[in-house]
Request: fold
Amino acid sequence: MSLDRKLLSISDLSINYQTEQGTSLAVQNVNLDIGENQFVAVVGESGCGKSTLALAIIGLISIPPARIESGKIGYKSVDLLSLKENERRKFRGTEIAMIFQEPLTSLNPVYKVGDQIAEAIMIREEQNEHLESAREIGIMQKTYSSNDLAVPPRFHLPRFSSSNRTQAILDALKLVRIPDPEQVIERYPFELSGGMRQRVMIAMALSQKPALLLADEPTTALDVTTQAQVLKLMKTLMSEVNTSILLITHDLAVASQVADRIVVMYAGDLVEDSDVYELFREPLHPYTKGLLSCIPSGSKKAKALKPIPGTVFDLTRPSTGCKFASRCPRCMDICRQKKPALVETKPGHRVACFLYGE
Amino acid sequence: MVSELGETQRNDIILETKGLSKLFPIRRGFNPFARNQPRYIHALNDVSMKIPRGMTVAVVGESGCGKTTLARAITLLSPPTSGEILFDGQTLTGGKVDTKSLYRRMQMVFQDPDSSLDPRFKVKDLVSEPCRRLLDSDREEIHSTVMQSLKIVGLSGYADRLPGHLSGGQKQRVAIARAISIRPEMILLDEPTSALDASVQAQILNLLIELQKDYNLTYLIITHNISVAEYLSDLLIVMYAGNVVEHGPTDAVISKPRHPYTIALISSAPIPNPWKRNLLNIEIKGEVPSAINPPSGCKFHPRCPYAGKICREQSPGMVEISPGQFVSCHFAEKTT
Amino acid sequence: MSPEGAAEEEAVGAPSPTPTRGRLRTVLHALRSNKGALIGASIVTVFVVTALAVFVAGLLHTRITPFNPIQQDVGPAFAPPSLAHLMGTDELGRDVFSRVVAATPNDVAVSLSVIAFSLILGALLGTYAAFHGGLVDEALMRITDIFFAIPALVLAMAIGIALGPGITNMAIALMVIWWPPYARLARGEGLKIAHQNYIEAARLSGAGRFRTILEHALPNISVTLLVYASLDVGTVILIYAGLSYLGLAVRPPYPDWGQMVSAYQDYMVSVPWLPLFPGLVLALGVVGFSLLGDGLKDALGGS
Reply:
């Protein structure tokens, strides 16, 4: 994709954590671009660095114990990592929003739902007052799709009167298809079900019409049918609100159902990045193939599961070669000596593996 | 123990429940104005099923469906309020039961590997506990049993470890080693792999299959994960809000679900196939109903696309819609 | 239902090939790095060792103190502190230092025995109530409520007067009133773990209720109870000193810190060191146990 249509451009990002057991290399040399209106899923198992990556993008990593060793996170040609916290805050919520796994702990239990959504909307009002500085930083490129006449442009909202505000809250809830929004506004978080709470979270996140929505395992704690509803909602909203979604998940099946693009991470490394259909048609990296053969689908007589041998890589141990080498069925000598670089074998399909060239 | 069933039948069905119900009383404060408040949580409602020996039966459902309550009722950890449980022809309900002899033959693996192992006990002491309490073995026999059990699950060097130093998958293996150490006939597994990563889950699932073959085990697996249920089980029981809504051979229920809830459940299960995006086409609305004030008649009727007047008034009975496949729905014929 | 550590990036993975150090060593290490705890530990050690030494010496009919604590006129009355009499002498010419040292076993023994009794009784009752529930639980709660409603010292005095003076009777009086908070604490902790899966797994392994409590529940709630107990020792010392001050414990001429403060307080203006020394030693004891308790809390709270 051409440079000016790129929304997010992460280059050579490396993040470490200081732990009691030593320095843990959570994210290593990650290069990733996300365009407008794209649904990208970052898939990997625990410890692979996907959550750290998301938190780094939105700037919620605690430093220390984390340390950003190197790299840039370019958002609309601004390097987010170079900004100070008060400037960074202007992007959080308005340009980049995030929802988390457990909405019960993300929502404040002592405030009504309506008040919390109002807070989210009011913050945007304040941000509007910093419009001038936003212009200075140079992020005012914004085009609106013609079919969102019901959705006000991102930076040009009138000041809220109280009736306007209530209407804005109701609109936010209607956007996420919550039944009886007038009643839900008066409820406390514990009175709602998990699925409803997650919808409220999405409403709060999207009420500020961000260009990028990060979702860290948003449906893992939900029932299967609720998960389907929420994922379907997110996909629908992506086009209604004209936002890109970066979905963090451990579940490759879920990713395959909703994402346009899948990025596979292992032990802090980005090992494969491809269009979703291409990934399932022809997975390249041995870890990706291993993951695919791990997913139960069909009865045990039909398709036996082939687990990946060995255990997850210990992030505190420095590695010279490819981190997957010890578990890889196709491991070669060079794999133990050098780390493979991310190579674009086909347009739109990148893989970090010596099987596919240097 | 003389059983009521015939000799051949007795060998077939290892566990049977008849009309199992579980009510939890709600503690109300002393409020003279609250006269007609609901008094019970209806966790299980008239659950009847038969588990054949040597097979794997999966109970699937979402939160509030009562599947965990069912497992705890069968193992007598939380005995049912009414109904009957028969284990190998022997009644477990109504009156004193020798739990020690029951637990020699029936064991359970719990959902959360972090909380199912006492953090103060070493692995070998955890695995040896059933032997020590339920069998009359001496120390040497116990030791060799423990070592053998650990070997079977692939944790040979881990006897002296503490649970805090184990990964989730390893903890679950310890729980499995503990369960099989006394060579039970039946094992209940409550969400055995829900807390595990994909590759670890695959290892555990394969281990379970291997153990079943080697030791002729009967499994009752509780899970919300349709794919896991499909992979492991021969028979599938679908529960909703405390009731069984459908049951039958797994491949039949999954390929041709007849209950509207089952249809929604199966189509919500994410399959690793971007060309079959059934997830985005589901049309289920609403949420799981309250267990305190359940809907009248069929509990699914408020959310059901096929619901008619009778569904509000009358709870449907179980009907054999095709050989071996049973549905509890007034309009079962219409749902193909 | 979330996969292990899905939302957290920790260095989980292949566990270290060598087992890491056990709990005790971790605690000791943590204590060593805490200055307050070290000071507390040294003070407590001095007190406990002195108490033991005095007690053993008594059994062997010797003494470790420079003078006989009840012998009068070993020096001039009201002598100020000097090399011969480190804490001076009292109105009867007795060596105050010897008296203070000789009184150590009283406070140490009483406080430790009261705490030990309360800990054991409270832990057993509290966890049993937590696991049993129902009427047993309610009964225990109401009984402890009664004890909480009455101030400790007053109740101890009442029992003490009923039983008559003497160090053993005071210890008994204190034991009677001291266990309820432990029972409440144990019940609270017990409730937290009563429905943990490993407790149910113990049931499935054939363990009876009592055995489950003993083997599984108590070890897992012990940390909270021990921390509370370690901070509580100082309080027992003070309350016992109060009883002793009121003359309910050891009768003269035998020394006891609280009783000494009471006896010497009349001379406060002219001979200030007399009541000061036993008072300071009391305070030091309380501070020492409290510092140690605090350090233990920090050390165990983190693990």
Summary: The CA atoms of residues 227 and 296 of chain C lie 6 Å apart. Chain C has one domain: 35-63+91-302.
